[in-house]
Input
Amino acid sequence: MKVYDTLIIGGGQAGLSVAYFLRRKNHDYLILDDQSKAGGAWLQTWDSLALFSPTEYSSLSGWAMPKSENEYPKKNEFIDYLEQYEVRYNMAIQRNTNVISVNKEADLFKVETDRGMFYSKTLVSATGTAKQPFIPNYPNQDIFEGKQLHSITYKNANEFARKKILIVGGGNSGAQILAEVSKVTQTQWITLETPYFLPDDIDGRYLFHAATQKFLGKPIDNSSDIKASLSNIVMVSSVKEARNRNVLHAKRPFTSFYKEGVIWQDGTKEPFDVVIWCTGFKANLEHLKPLDIIENDRIKTNHTRAVKEPKLWLVGYGNWTGFASATIYGVGKTARQTVKELSEELS
Ligand SMILES: Cc1cc2nc3c(=O)[nH]c(=O)nc-3n(C[C@H](O)[C@H](O)[C@H](O)COP(=O)(O)OP(=O)(O)OC[C@H]3O[C@@H](n4cnc5c(N)ncnc54)[C@H](O)[C@@H]3O)c2cc1C
Output
């Protein structure tokens, strides 16, 4: 029976970042990933998606992303970069392998997959959030006869022409999908609060600078009075263009569905053909359920290390595994710290 020093579950940017630091330590590791090629969740996002960060802020540790001819790289350029990153560092990765469950056997992790059993001394889970799209509950949602989809399955606006579309969610996904769909048909945007648009000259650069300051425990320069949050809407060109068309108007949520549409807070009904939920994700921790350490869709961690299972680390996912760890720029810092701890455990 082969026992790895470390198994990494998930071969997206978080898994590759951990592998980058691990290979410098000469530990025997393997990444298990259920997709057929590199790219992680970027493979699922919509066709026209451009990053909100310029190339120099869209790089993983060790090797900068090649300069794009666009100021904001297209998602396919980033997927190509991930593919090349993996090859450049000769990463040990087994694709088309879905991890079903993780158990402990003696002091080892026993990882059950659809391609056999794997064993390791330490484990990193980097399975992202894309497989757990979140859709809030509204009364009578099940009787609505229109189509409902989550932003993770939205590809482009072609199929929505001449339909009436409700877009729910006040983050970057909601704003960018609204911008695209409103070019071909009638839309209504719903957000919990008035959306917060960053000034035109503020992009991922500023947000990541703020993230770094926070990681280093330094004060964020708020002299320009900008609320730095990774959920603020970045004015990428498609959203600016939508602003010029005067479509960036959001209403507060409706109270319930009815068969043909939604009922607003004042009791009026309005029919819609499609609802696109741009309402975010939860961490994909299904495979870790047998360890019995999941509470409220999270695992209690000290930085990235699971408190109740100290040979397990969680990388990516969201701020609870390190500020900005679910971003390209932020994940390297948490991966480096993870490997430092993991290596001490193995030595
Ligand atoms: C629409 C959108 C736009 C974004 N834009 C930006 C941006 O411009 N800049 C930025 O920095 N960040 C951006 N992000 C955030 C973030 O960078 C991405 O979500 C990124 O994909 C997260 O990487 P990850 O490696 O943590 O997870 P993922 O990319 O989801 O990778 C996880 C991998 O694990 C695999 N996996 C999952 N479960 C299993 C299992 N049980 N067994 C085996 N394999 C499994 C998945 O298939 C996947 O390959 C964006 C996110 C979204 C949704």
About this structure: The domain at 3-131+282-346 is CATH 3.50.50.60 (FAD/NAD(P)-binding domain). The mean pLDDT is 92. The radius of gyration is 21 Å. DSSP finds six helices and 19 strands in the chain.
